[in-house]
Amino acid sequence: MIVEEYPHFDIQKTAESGQCFRLNRIGDHEWLLIAYGKVLQITMERKGRYCFSCGRKEFDSLWKDYFDLETDYGKFAERIPKKDLFLQKAAAFSDGIRILRQDPWETLISFIISQRKSIPAIQTSVEKLSAAFGKKIPAGTKTYYAFPRPEELSRADYDDILACSVGYRAPYIYRAAKMCASGELDLMSLSELDDAALREKLLSVNGVGEKVAGCVMLFGYHRTGAFPVDVWIQRMIDLHYDGHFPLKRYRGFAGIIQQYIFYYGRQTYDRSERMRMKIEKLDKKGSLI
DNA sequence: TGCCAGGCTTCAC
DNA sequence: GTGAAGCATGGC
């Protein structure tokens, strides 16, 4: 159990930022994370002061990097033009979010699952897969389950994967597991590649398109230049940038900007606005006919 | 009950 | 190259 001060780290925002599906709030000031075969409890003693349920060695060798605690995120926000009021607001609102260094394999499968699913539904599937095929992690009176390794998933019955509420994504998961377990796809060695080559390799996996590849690059390989565009990002770009986001301005850290837009957009965009955009789109379509 | 969800693949054209 | 259809199922 160690206590650390990180004034610019916000566990709540990070947990709610949609990049990780096994970092859950379990109390007013407590979160539970299952990652890398370990369970970590994080208690916020006060703003910027956290208690981690691990020893110094584990914290320094694993969690400090996992939460990217040594990076100064302020320098990214400073690069946003003052006149871009939307992004200024998004960055201020999201202050404290970190881009996590997650396991590439878990990130790959989690984001294959994510397509056309809500975040709670993704969490359900990830938990079901872990409980069905992952190794047990005993912790006190409770038992948790690690996310299954490729070998464990590749040995699974296809129908048992299907039973994890993954629907039509089951064959994608099954094939990815076979590829990784057989060595046909070595996710560890991909970290040697540059962004373009990594993207190409990820796109070669069935069920992985531009958006999922971007998420795996950003959250699994910490390629902060990746800019995955999902419905939320596209919605914000349409609404605030007339469909064209100035991506070049944020070369090398567009992924962090993307996360600010995603978090701010989801938290503040209401249904009436969504309806307005929908009607506008239909009108545009109608005017073309 | 119906709509929507951190999209992708396939197939026309 | 582009656009549309079809996809399984949970959560609200």
Mean pLDDT: 94
Number of strands: 7
CATH superfamily of the domain at 102-221: Hypothetical protein, domain 2
Uncertain residue ranges? none
Helix count, DSSP H or I runs of 4 or more residues: 14
CA distance, first residue to last residue: 65 Å
Return the string of H and E elements: EHEEEEHHHHHEEHHHHHHHH
- Share in helix: 40-55%
Query: Could you describe the largest sheet, including whether it forms a barrel?
Result: 5 strands, antiparallel
Shape: globular
- DSSP strand (E) fraction? 5-15%
Looking at how many chains there are and whether they match, the oligomeric state comes to: single chain
Q: Which structural class fits the helix and strand makeup?
A: alpha+beta
CATH topology call of the domain at 102-221: Endonuclease III, domain 1
Q: What Rg, in angstroms, do the CA atoms define?
A: 20 Å
CATH architecture of the domain at 102-221: Orthogonal Bundle
Q: Just give the CATH class of the domain at 102-221.
A: Mainly Alpha
Order of the strands making up the biggest sheet: 1-5-4-3-2
